[in-house]
Design a protein that fits this description.
Two copies of one chain form a homodimer. Chain A is mainly alpha-helical and 213 residues long. The first copy, chain A, has a single domain, classed as Tetracycline Repressor, domain 2 (Orthogonal Bundle). Chain A has eight helices and no strands. In chain A, helix 1 crosses helix 3, helix 3 packs across helix 4 and helix 5 crosses helix 6. The longest helix of chain A has 27 residues. At the A-B interface, helix 1, helix 5, helix 6, helix 7 and helix 8 of A face helix 1, helix 5, helix 6, helix 7 and helix 8 of B. The structure holds a DNA duplex (30 and 30 nucleotides).
DNA sequence: AAAGTAAAAGAACGACCGGTCGGTCATATA
DNA sequence: TATATGACCGACCGGTCGTTCTTTTACTTT
């Protein structure tokens, strides 16, 4: 009992910090990291604007931490689950489908944090841009290594260009975000899924590894 | 002589209007249509901030006109040139390569106006969002009809899903923008071109229609 | 030549931006 | 128990935003 009263200032601070960060990632997935304003963020997170500065020196520091937080979310929701299944071609498809599910479930109200962030910062040099580029490079690198693994396992055609295939899987998944929101959600998910499934099936040495549709 | 003096108020206004619009599309390709500020826009276009309001009621009207201006630019640079060549599979590849050239030449400093605009407005209902959605739909519709034409000409496999292929060509081209700016330009253009070329070649009834690489 | 009109500039507005400051209060530390 | 610390607040700063109003200027129309 009296559980809610035991409120240790430090633990409470940590909870505030995470609430703000989580809210920041959500809001940034809609408005972007620049469109995010400290006033609205603080209000949405239930703290005062000045309370915010107990946790971050300035807006840029928050942006950097938000990128790290979003990376963790991506690993938790997309990468880690796929590591529970078999490697190779099936893992590639699992990654892609986890991504589509991530979008479809509306985990982030704007669809994809990094999609917005990379468009926003690809022309604005600085630490934030560098952090986004690193996250993007990490993700594409992981995809590429997963392709290489599939080739090494003999599941995909030996002539497969891993970097090329990683680029395509990423591009075909990314476009689902705006296509589903601007035009039609059902066809966006269908096109996004079918594109990668057929691309992978064409490279498969054992056609039973992935479903026909 | 006295050419610069003959300045007809009306003609001068039209020139101002177009200078502002052109500048707005360039700046919006970097900062987005919301990130665009009237002060910097006016300065870059060589007029005063208030002079802007002689041409547009408010910022939203400018955004709508900028979308129309960017659409015309896209038609002039991508669609119209491709109509000069043969229809069918070669036209699809020509469209894709014109797009990549558009990016590589730096026609717009931010790479692609609509790429930025669609990410920015896919979650913000209103007239601007609707205009961006229409432009996006027009482009994808044109791609789809070009695919259908290629199928009707017997150049592409009869079982080709036109909407699906249009989605893929667009997605694979779009991703070049941020990939080239955030990571590596050379590989981005190579991946973007190779992806569509191979995708089309796999559907070709006459393999000599498109180059091997 | 007079009257009318369109293109601009200049100054100023209220709202909101990121950020600072002084202060309060519960808690961790000694 | 004394003290330092971290979380947090309300008030406020200079600056920029989109927008409005007034005025000047130069062309167009009558």
């Amino acid at each position: 009992m009296a559980e809610t009263k035991a409120d240790g200032r430090r633990a409470r601070g940590e909870r505030s910090r995470e609430a703000i960060l989580s809210q920041a990632v959500s809001m940034a997935s809609v408005e972007g990291l620049s469109g995010l304003t400290l006033g609205r963020l603080a209000e949405a997170a239930g703290v005062s604007k000045s309370g915010f500065f107990a946790h971050w020196r300035d807006k840029e520091q928050l942006q950097l931490d938000a990128i790290a937080w979003a990376s963790r979310l991506w690993v938790d929701r997309i990468i880690r689950p796929s590591l529970a299944g078999p490697p190779g071609a099936r893992r590639l498809m699992a990654l892609h489908e986890a991504r589509l599910r991530f979008y479809a479930e509306g985990v982030l109200p704007g669809g994809c944090f990094f999609y917005v962030a990379q468009v926003e910062f690809d022309d604005k040099p600085g630490p934030v841009r560098d952090a986004v580029a690193t996250a993007m490079s990490d993700w594409l690198g992981f995809l590429r290594r997963t392709v290489e693994e599939a080739v090494a396992l003999g599941e995909l055609d030996a002539g497969t260009d891993a970097g090329q295939l990683a680029y395509e899987i990423n591009a075909l998944g990314e476009a689902v975000v705006s296509h589903s929101r601007m035009l039609d959600a059902e066809s966006a998910y269908r096109f996004g899924r079918t594109a990668v499934l057929h691309r992978l099936r064409a490279l498969l040495t054992d056609p039973t590894l992935l479903p026909e549709a």
